User: Fold these one by one.
Assistant:
Number 1:
Amino acid sequence: MAPVKISYVVSFSSQDPKYPAENLLSEDGIRPWLGCPQDHSRQLSVELQLERASPIGYVDVGNHGCAFLQIEVGRSSWPRDQPYLILVPTVTLMTPADSKLDRNCCGVRMFKEADFLELAVGQKWDRVRLTCSQPFSSCSRFGLSFIRLRTPQEQEPEPEPPRPALGPVGASHTSVEEEQLRNCLWKLEGAAQSPAHLSRSARMVLSAARNQALRP
């Protein structure tokens, strides 16, 4: 999984000049994006242009007083009136009680593909729209402190068995030990899948054992 860089802010519904939407482009996330103090709509949105069209596998968001958040994706090539697709449906970042007491305002939410709506998964996007709201507190400042995007984790191929460096007898013995280790790892993982589909960590253990067996 690789970071997906945000190039610039396309548009925003509101911002405090001291805490503009461009703060979301910062990689250190020190200063947040907050709505204008004179805006009483209690809802904010910002649209971001990505450096290139990429599949999105992970989204990390730093909250700053928002009660609800929705994430949508689209493409810069689309007509202006074409609706974006929902990536993450509206989620709760703060409870009504926390909102009214102005506590637990700066949590972090991390979303993965399992949290995304199916229509938006696996496609390439170069626009992201964030819509956040705070209906439970009429005077508190709210917005977001950061957003991080990453591509999906690449599926690693099954390790290819190395060519045996021993004779036929030694190679056969190595193959038996390897099969025993594979079955043991499979059982330790709960036997959720067949032995041919081990987890990444189990495949690394198996590969290390192969390399050790082939050393002279």
Number 2:
Amino acid sequence: FLWTIRRDPPAYLFGTIHVPYTRVWDFIPDNSKAAFHASSSVFFELDLTDPYTISGLASCQMLPHGENLQDVLPRELYRRLKRHLDYIKLMLPHWMTPDQRGKGLYADYLFNAIAGNWERKRPVWVMLMVNSLTETDIRSRGVPVLDLYLAQEAERMKKTTGAVERVEEQCHPLNGLNFSQV
């Protein structure tokens, strides 16, 4: 949806979704694309082009120092998770597209990029990671999600960019969920 705040110049609020932009780009109305092009400043949920944002997201996902997922998950759930990730690692080469391989993307690299250090992550982040380890999601890896695509386009068009949230504002609520909520 695109909301317009009627003022001079107008301001817009556009709701995005965290999926590869190629899945939704053709369905974004022309008025939303026109508003993006007409805007001189664009602000996103987080600045996904900022290395500090990316490293902050990575570090907030980790369990406190010295803890491992095996210490916090019930034994049987941990075993099921490990078996599932072993299965994903086995299937990953079959799920990858020729285009991904042509760009030099290897299954082991992709698995480590998504699931690397999973034994040190908090359960909520492991759950989100597992939800993204499907054949459909793997086939779209290498294509930026809509937010990142728009941020890259904004930078290419020399627009002023920024973020409306900090990493902590994203991380702390998720990290505050108890085990039964996760």
